[in-house]
Design goal:
InterPro entries: AB_hydrolase_fold (IPR029058), Acyl-CoA_thioEstase_long-chain (IPR016662), BAAT_C (IPR014940), Thio_Ohase/aa_AcTrfase (IPR006862), Thio_Ohase/BAAT_N (IPR042490). Pfam families: BAAT_C (PF08840), Bile_Hydr_Trans (PF04775). GO terms for molecular function: fatty acyl-CoA hydrolase activity. By secondary structure, the chain is α/β, with parallel strands linked by helices. The chain folds into 2 domains: 133 residues, Immunoglobulin-like, CATH 2.60.40.2240; 276 residues, Alpha/Beta hydrolase fold, catalytic domain (Rossmann fold). It has 9 helices and 21 strands. The strands form 5 sheets. It has an 8-stranded mixed β-sheet, sandwiched between helices. The chain has a 6-stranded mixed β-sheet with strand order 2-9-8-4-5-7. A 3-stranded antiparallel β-sheet has the order 1-3-6, with no helix packed on it. β16 and β17 form a beta hairpin. The termini are far apart.
Length: 449
């Protein structure tokens, strides 16, 4: 019997030790915080990992399933500090898909997961739903096999293109096809006509984001929209769209801008130079050129491109370099006369644009406007090592993706250009300056230029 008290003590001690072990594990379980949990896509988030052992190697990993059902990921390698923490805005990623103190690298360096389809591009198609990104922290420096590992902690953040209260209005009138986004409140608001490039379709996410920043923005579909032939899409189509935006009761009719990317920029330059209807207070052209005069129907324009398709070059990776086509065109006499422009114009270009000679065009446009006396209206932003697709901030960079050439209907791999980190910087900086430019000229009293 004398042994029982000793056995009881050992039993109690064992139970107590187990309790202490479980309690300690709970207290030291790694914690991951991502703030804000919900925000606009152009808003930075910050992540903090705590309760790690000091000097522990960990991997921060982001995972997103696109609207096309493809999975995208990014990851960075970190080492916890003496307090057992990793903080995105303070600590450097030592490797992975991005390096340096770059918390948003978990977005802009995203790429398709191994085994994905070739030549993918990540674009938001359903803007009324957020882009959900699962962020996890793993033990060790991993570069693959994340789905086979158990994360130490996980958090999900929502990235929205539409702020609360933004209204989405379908435009189906006078053969015009588009979507108008209206900011919260009673209005009226300054208006933006938003033109995307030759990829076609109704691309809404930039317009939705512009509305989230206070602009009534109309995304226009102009490449073979429903019930309209490409042969019918000419200057009058864009003039009708501009008038619809201008006459909307929630839009300030004398505070309008046009924003274009690629072909949308060429259309913007042509319309603002020659149209008697489209007279905006300012315009923004992203990765565009005045060597693409759109003075006829788009069908005729693409037929002209088809006639020079033999000028397209292909690199060693079988990627099409579109830029050479325009550099070889005998179109000096046909280029847009930008000397006629009467409103402030912002050009946004990457110097590694492989689609259009945007930088060369900007230089020539500056000389043309200098001769015409309107050079003071021109502002040029040129970003080193940035490519063609300068999109809203933190969008992943795509150096080359699948693309369908409208002029030949051929499916190719298009080389857009750019290097990931410089391109990410260009997108973030350009967006801030585009918004500032629009507010500067659309909130000021109306001036006759």
């Amino acid at each position: 019997n004398s042994k029982w008290p000793f056995l009881n003590f050992r039993c109690y001690f064992h139970i107590y030790s187990l309790y202490r072990s479980v309690s300690t594990q709970k207290r030291t379980c790694p914690l991951l915080s991502v703030q804000p949990i919900r925000g606009l896509v152009d808003e930075k988030f910050q992540f903090v990992v705590t309760n790690l052992p000091p000097d522990q190697k960990v991997t921060l990993h982001s995972l997103h399933q696109s609207d096309d059902k493809d999975f995208w990921e990014a990851f960075g390698h970190y080492v916890s500090d003496e307090h057992g923490s990793v903080t995105g805005f303070k600590h450097e990623s030592l490797g992975g898909t991005y390096e340096g103190t770059e918390p948003m690298g978990l977005l802009w360096s995203m790429r398709p997961i191994p085994g994905s389809r070739h030549g993918l591009r990540l674009r938001k198609r359903d803007i009324v739903r957020p882009m959900e990104v699962c962020i996890s922290v793993y033990s060790g420096h991993l570069s693959q096999g994340f789905s086979q590992q158990t994360p130490l902690a996980t958090s999900v953040t929502e990235r929205w293109y539409v702020a609360p209260g933004v209204k989405r209005v379908n435009i189906r009138e006078k053969e015009i096809r588009g979507t108008l986004f209206l900011p919260p409140g009673s209005g009226p608001y300054p208006g933006v006509l938003d033109l995307w490039g030759a990829g076609g379709g109704l691309v809404e996410y930039r317009s939705a984001l512009l509305a989230s920043h206070g602009f009534a923005s109309m995304a226009l579909e102009y490449l073979a929209p429903e019930d309209l032939r490409l042969e019918d899409t000419d200057a009058s189509y864009f003039e009708k769209a501009y008038q619809i935006l201008k006459n909307h009761p929630m839009v300030k009719k004398d505070h309008l801008a046009v924003v274009g990317l690629c072909l949308g920029s060429a259309i913007t330059l042509s319309m603002v130079s020659y149209s008697k209807v489209i007279k905006p207070q300012c315009c923004v052209c992203i990765s565009g050129s005045h060597l693409m005069p759109v003075d006829k129907s788009l069908s005729e324009f693409f037929e002209e491109m088809k006639n020079h398709a033999d000028k397209l070059c292909v690199n060693e990776n079988n990627q099409v370099i579109h830029k050479n086509l325009f550099l070889s065109l005998p179109c000096q006499s046909a280029k847009v006369d930008v000397g006629r422009i009467k409103c402030p114009l912002l050009l946004v270009n990457g110097d590694d644009d492989q689609i259009l000679p945007a930088v060369e065009s900007a230089e020539d446009m500056a000389m043309m406007m200098e001769k015409s006396g309107n050079r003071h209206l021109l502002e040029i932003l040129t970003y080193p090592d940035a490519g063609h697709l300068i999109e809203p901030p933190y969008s992943p960079h795509f150096r080359a993706t699948n693309f369908k050439l409208e002029c030949t209907k051929e499916r190719i791999v298009m080389l857009w250009g750019g290097q990931t980190k410089p391109h990410a910087y260009a997108q973030e900086d350009a967006w801030k300056k585009i918004l500032a430019f629009l507010w500067q000229h659309l909130s000021a009293p109306v001036t006759s230029f």
